């Protein structure tokens, strides 16, 4: 009985996640008339692959992928450097206010981001970064407690004797971190890349608010090209969603073992 309930709950959870994805996939292959005349889960009568071509060309998705790629790479590199160096300082050094710094990151995570947007917008505008890629990069560059926590768990598994041996050989703190510690953090870096990268890739709010110029659209804001005052072209929007979801899906399937290993390693150390 318990086993049956376990499988029933797993099937229900899987259906809860998969049904919306199937509806989007089926809608992307239907015509506009077919989409509004049948059931959402009805199979398409034909394969209207032209929806994908229209989504790619009319939505300027090549430009969206270019802008998203630039923002993603620069933000991830900066975020990993800031988070790993912060975690290294918190783990290896004793200094006044150490617990206060860690508590500050936790408190900042608990504050709803939407409540600080007026102040954040004024700062970004004052710096002259509004309607530039740097506005999104600056906002994504800031690290968070999850990234710091992941690096902290891996750092606690690296013996301090390595630092002490390098210091006896005359290496300074930066040399110890970049030449010895940082290469050993590869599993944590892979985990942060996937977790943070997917969040940046899917984010709609920051590009929509801080980069309204059409030349700066990302893959998430490109969906707005098919939304007009008299309704939306939902079959085209569905095709665009499938195109946008494919890269993150392929990346996750290829690197999922790093995500699981990263979280489970951190949990047992």
3D structure, described in words:
The chain has 269 residues and is mainly α. 73% of the residues lie in helices and 1% in strands. It has 13 helices and two strands. The protein has helices spanning 2-28, 32-37, 50-58, 61-92, 98-110, 117-126, 133-141, 145-155, 160-168, 173-184, 186-202, 205-210, 234-268; strands at residues 227-228, 231-232. Strands 1-2 form a two-stranded antiparallel sheet.
| Unreliable stretches covering 5 or more consecutive residues | none
Task: Assign a percent range to the helix content.
Answer: over 70%
Mean residue pLDDT: 83
Taking the alpha carbons of the first and last residues, their distance comes to 35 Å
Topology, number of strands: 2
Q: Give a quick account of the main beta sheet: strands, pairing sense, barrel closure.
A: 2 strands, antiparallel
Number of helices: 13
Sum up the overall morphology in one term. globular
From the alpha carbons, calculate the radius of gyration and give it in angstroms.
Answer: 23 Å
SSE string, helices as H and strands as E: HHHHHHHHHHHHEEH
Structural class: mainly alpha
Give the arrangement of secondary structure elements.
Blueprint: H1 2-28, H2 32-37, H3 50-58, H4 61-92, H5 98-110, H6 117-126, H7 133-141, H8 145-155, H9 160-168, H10 173-184, H11 186-202, H12 205-210, E1 227-228, E2 231-232, H13 234-268
Antiparallel strand pairs: 1-2
A few lines on this structure:
The protein is built from 13 helices and 2 strands. The chain has 269 residues and is an all-alpha fold. Helix 3 packs across helix 13.
